[in-house]
Amino acid sequence: MPPTGTIFDIKKYAIHDGPGIRTTVFFKGCPLDCWWCHNPESRHTGVERIEVRSRIHGADREIVKEEIIGREVTIKEVMTEVLKDVIFYDQSGGGVTFSGGEPLHQIDFLTALLQACKDHHIHTAVDTSGCAPPEDFARINGLVDLYLYDLKLMDEQIHVKLTGASNQLILENLSILAQHDLDIQVRVPLIPGITDTEENLDAILAYLDRLNKVNEVCLLPYNVLGENKRRKFNLPQRLEPRQTQSKDMLEVCAGRFRARGYLVHVGG
Ligand code: SF4
């Protein structure tokens, strides 16, 4: 019996989740709990029923609506959507990206989907937090054309505080992947005053220099939508509201990596 999985969205014509035009499948479930998470609906693995509160314009009262987050799907259902856009993947050098949440959190489902894409000669990317058992990465390495690998914070204690887990496993997994000559783009979500500091970016640079295998970096400007979504889902706001980085600030961050020979993308 092929595995089923829980997803919360399938985004068509995505252009920031890897090369070309892509379909991005968002898995539910993530082992981390980042304070800035811009996909809080992905945190829990199962289908959720939540109350969404919104204020009626001009009235002094709220309405409460129930929303179902996520759905259980079969491989066939996901592939039916994916296969509708093969012509766009072929013309643009695109494909499918599995994101989340953490796609490796549903490893059987992910493996089966990657295999199905390979059977149809579709380019595959996996957008990962890196927080998964090394043996799960070993299961899928042969089926993944590109890893989009998040590095957030190099200081372990701050990582624990702001994401709920140590960064050791994440760094170890990246070192192992790098030894296997896989195609890897490191993605750094730039959280103002937290991950976009000189100190943190220099520590990421020093780590990548030591690996000496990854030469492509993507800097992701702060996404304020996360704050709105947390409000919508009645989740605690653990960070003070922040602004997206200015163009100048993004250029300074990108310049640090370019100066050391990295190919840098800003914004996916
Ligand atoms: S790793 Fe990504 S999906 Fe998981 S909590 Fe952090 S920001 Fe959210």
Q: What is the residue-mean pLDDT, rounded to a whole number?
A: 94
Structural class comes to: alpha/beta
> Which sequence of SSEs, written as H and E, runs from N to C?
EEEEEHHEHEHEHHEHEHHE
Tell me which CATH architecture applies here: Alpha-Beta Barrel
The first-level CATH class is given as Alpha Beta
Bound molecules: iron/sulfur cluster
Q: At the fourth CATH level, what is the homologous superfamily?
A: Aldolase class I
Model description:
The protein has a single domain, classed as TIM Barrel (Alpha-Beta Barrel), CATH 3.20.20.70. The protein is built from 9 helices and 11 strands. Strand 6 (95-99), helix 3 and strand 7 (123-128) form a beta-alpha-beta unit. The chain has a 9-stranded mixed beta sheet. Strands 3-4 form a two-stranded antiparallel sheet. The mean pLDDT is 94. With 268 residues, the protein is an alpha/beta fold. The chain has helices at 75-83, 86-92, 107-119, 134-140, 156-163, 168-179, 198-211, 225-232, 247-258, and strands at 4-14, 22-27, 48-55, 62-69, 71-74, 95-99, 123-128, 146-150, 184-189, 216-220, 263-266. The structure holds iron/sulfur cluster. Iron/sulfur cluster binds at residues 30, 32-34, 37, 39, 42-43, 100-102, 129.
What descriptors fit this protein?
single chain; alpha/beta; two-stranded antiparallel sheet
